[in-house]
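TASK: fixed-backbone design
INPUT:
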């Protein structure tokens, strides 16, 4: 007859097997924790080398529990702050001073439109009688045809009653508009000066000096008497460049 211990043998074997399985599982988990701890420590060491500050008192154990092996928590333990918590002083960006583009453009245009009452460059070619002018490279037939009325006048401006400064601005604007609208042959009426001292037209001489300074003017001539004579000047403009 067998004793009672023999009946307990299967239970004992089962208990031993469970103990061995538990020991094997514990060893497996321990190795996993050690590996995670080692990799986390290596990661933080790399971060410190790149200039990221961490808590000087931080020491990672080789047997961290799973609750400690949390990336965000590990970063917080290491003293790494989220970008949203950056405490560095942020200086307000200096706003660049606005560029007065329109003012600059207006000033440039004023310079372009400015006309001198004194300039009389030798670059221009005058006719023998002083009644016509053409730019270098422009044939003598252009002012000659102007005087003979072979060009159709498609626009004119009358300066009667204007002061010199008013007339200067009016001539500049008139020429710009005429060229822009392809009106390349125009008449400027300045008067003969019959009411002026010495019966000399002040505006006539000034207008012709101004015309010599305008790049769009390639020639001008005093017309025949029946077209205005000394009281007017016929102007030939160069076509506007197309971009």
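OUTPUT:
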């Amino acid at each position: 007859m067998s004793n009672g211990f023999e009946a307990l043998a299967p239970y004992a074997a089962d208990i031993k097997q469970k103990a061995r399985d538990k020991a094997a599982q514990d060893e497996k988990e321990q190795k996993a924790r050690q590996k995670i701890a080692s990799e986390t420590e290596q990661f933080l060491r790399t971060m410190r080398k790149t200039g990221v500050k961490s808590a000087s008192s931080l020491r990672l154990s080789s047997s961290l529990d799973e609750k400690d092996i949390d990336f965000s928590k590990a970063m917080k333990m290491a003293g790494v702050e989220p970008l949203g918590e950056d405490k560095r002083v942020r200086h307000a960006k200096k706003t660049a001073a606005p560029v007065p583009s329109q003012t600059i453009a207006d000033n440039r245009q004023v310079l372009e439109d400015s006309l001198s009452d004194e300039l009389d460059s030798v670059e221009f070619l005058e006719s023998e009688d002083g009644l016509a002018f053409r730019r270098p490279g422009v044939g003598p037939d252009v002012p000659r045809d102007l005087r003979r009325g072979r060009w159709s006048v498609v626009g004119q401006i009358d300066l009667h009653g204007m002061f010199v400064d008013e007339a200067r601005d009016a001539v500049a604007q008139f020429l710009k508009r005429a060229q822009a609208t392809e009106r390349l042959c125009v008449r400027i009426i300045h008067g003969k000066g019959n009411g002026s001292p010495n019966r000399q037209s002040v505006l006539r001489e000034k207008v012709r000096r101004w015309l010599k300074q305008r790049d769009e003017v390639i020639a001008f001539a005093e017309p025949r008497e029946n077209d205005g004579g000394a009281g007017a000047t016929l102007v030939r403009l160069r076509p506007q460049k197309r971009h």
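COMMENT: The first helix runs from residue 4 to 49.
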